[in-house]
Design goal:
With 266 residues, the chain is mainly β. It contains six helices and 13 strands. The strands form two sheets. The chain has a ten-stranded mixed beta sheet. Strands 8-13-12 form a three-stranded mixed beta sheet, with no helix packed on it. A hairpin with a 5-residue loop joins strand 12 and strand 13.
């Protein structure tokens, strides 16, 4: 589509990734609109991370990054501007939240998955969401290493649009034994309740409460276990497959101007 202009290096990411040995899995997924999207899922067992990436039909590039050690996940979106509405710049959004290890298989299990039929179009077994996630903090990227050592590299192009949830900050400080006030020093409150929804705001220069939705059409959300007998006849449980899910999330955050939330019209 002409109005969406993503730089060439972004549009070729998935094609390049499919040819790299480090890409553990490349999956064809049909979305609800009938379009087939290509997801790449890469596991790094040394860093204990998983990266899932795909490109929407409108050119938007979506990345889900999971840091198992820090128990956080990052959703990043490269969103093209709509030039006919006065937005001619690429916008990068980052949303950081606490991660539950039960929501995705481990990096080790992910690294062992192989695609038997790479041309097959996959469908998930379970539908999750849509979940509304309210982000009320802005992250200072110069201090973001306190949350995860990976935040800066992933979100460095989103210096004013990297968001976090205060409720998750409390949970992370407890689970990882980190000082809450120290973590909070890397944040700035945005007070979402003070703002009107963007679709009710006509002035493109005013800040407003924006909703951004992204859907991950297919991902391994759990392991399947079967029962059998070992060589001695003892009944044992063993891994025999994966469970797959689809998940949609709505990220509510404060946009600096209505101009930076043109998609929120409903």
């Amino acid at each position: 589509m002409d109005k969406f202009r993503i730089p060439a290096f972004l549009s070729s990411v998935l094609l390049l990734c499919a040819s790299l040995v480090s890409c553990q899995l490349v999956v064809n997924v049909k979305n609800k609109g009938g379009d087939v999207l290509v997801e790449s899922i890469q596991a790094n067992t040394t860093e204990d991370t998983v990266t899932l990436e795909y490109q929407n039909t409108d050119g938007t590039l979506i990345t889900q990054f999971i840091d198992f050690k820090s128990e956080v996940q990052i959703f990043r979106a490269y969103v093209a501007g709509e030039e006919e509405r006065g937005q001619n710049q690429l916008q990068v959004l980052c949303f950081i939240s606490r991660f539950s290890k039960n929501d995705f298989i481990s990096s080790d299990a992910m690294s062992k998955l192989r695609q038997k039929n790479p041309t097959a179009i996959r469908s998930p077994e379970e539908e999750k969401g849509p979940d509304l996630m309210v982000y009320d903090l802005l992250t200072d990227l110069t201090k973001s290493h306190m949350i995860s050592p990976h935040v800066f590299n992933i979100c460095q192009e989103a210096r004013e649009t990297t968001f976090f949830k205060e409720g998750d900050l409390t949970t992370i400080s407890r689970s990882l034994n980190k000082d809450y006030n120290t973590l909070m020093s890397a944040m700035k409150k945005t007070y979402p309740s003070k703002y009107a929804r963007c679709h009710d705001t006509n002035d493109l220069s005013k800040p407003c409460l924006c909703h951004y939705q992204m859907c991950v059409g297919w991902y391994p959300c759990g392991l399947k276990y079967c029962r059998g007998k070992d060589s001695t006849g003892k009944v044992v449980s063993y891994r025999c497959g994966i469970k797959t899910c689809r998940r949609c999330l709505v990220f509510e955050h404060v946009a600096r101007q209505r101009l930076w939330c043109l998609w929120d019209d409903s």
